[in-house]
Amino acid sequence: MTFYIKPYRRLGRNQMVAHYNLDNARYLPVNVFEEEDTFVITAQVPGLKSEDVDIQVLENVVHIEGEYHANETEYLLKELPSGPFRRTLRMPSEVEADKIEAKIIDGVLTLHLPKAESAKPKKIKVLVK
Q1: Among 30, 46, 48, 95, which residue's beta carbon has the most beta carbons within 10 A?
Q2: Residue pLDDT, tens place only, 78-100
Q3: How many separate domains does the chain show?
Q4: 34 CA to centre of own chain
Q5: Which domain holds residue 34?
Q6: Which pTM was predicted?
């Protein structure tokens, strides 16, 4: 199973920074795991509502993008994300786009991507004559 996941690069001793795309969109850090018939993707999206996130799926490629809303407050310390984010993941097999479930609960985006029937193992009965 290969996921092209490399959201950070090392700067120096114990310092990490998120990569940016050419259009300054931040990579969205995600967790991906596999259940029997489903892939599950989770990501932290604090303060976002469902209309703030756009999810597209084509065959086995999942594209997630959105934007953290920034306000004009002058911060003493600013660690929470702001601005656009984008993430594209290639799943190990095709998924059923019509059956995907996405929800945001307590700032965590969770996607359930059912595997396509063609990606599920088939049991073949052997006949003996």
Answers
A1: 95
A2: 888 888 999 999 998 889 989 99
A3: 1
A4: 13
A5: 26-70+80-117
A6: 0.71
